[in-house]
Design brief:
The chain is an all-alpha fold. The chain has helices at 6-35, 41-86, 102-126.
Length: 129
């Protein structure tokens, strides 16, 4: 069973919020137009709901793509490295893009830990510890 990523969960919450927001906007538009006796108030309200959804979701999809590319992919790289090392592959190196952020620091820290474990294991095998 594949897990949902955090960004996917956040995205679903944002989608739900945007749906509620657009219904609220549509309701306001409808009541404003209906109280002004504008013809086709319901049609115009539905159009406002559709337009507000489109205007909101385009940037949300873009932001999700950026988060997936810049954050989630680095986390997956570190998770894969942790899996490999936990299975005994102490030669598995983690490579992440040099961006100077916390995720690069996490990957470098994990790689230093991997090298320390490897050195200790080699000393144990030689009987030096």
């Amino acid at each position: 069973m594949e897990r949902k990523s955090i960004s996917q969960k956040i995205f679903m919450i944002v989608l739900g919020g945007s749906f509620v927001e657009s219904l609220f906007v549509g309701g306001l538009v409808y009541f404003m137009l209906a109280s002004s006796n504008v013809q086709d108030a319901l049609v115009k309200a539905v159009i406002s709901v559709i337009i507000s959804q489109i205007m909101f979701l385009i940037p949300v999809f873009g932001i999700k793509k950026i988060i997936d590319d810049k954050i989630v992919s680095k986390l997956k790289t570190v998770v894969n490295g942790m899996h490999e090392v936990s299975m005994g592959n102490l030669d598995y190196e983690i490579y992440v893009e040099k961006t100077g952020d916390e995720l690069e620091e996490l990957a470098e820290s994990f790689d230093r830990m991997r090298m320390s474990i490897k050195a200790i294991m080699e000393k144990l095998e030689k009987g030096e510890l």
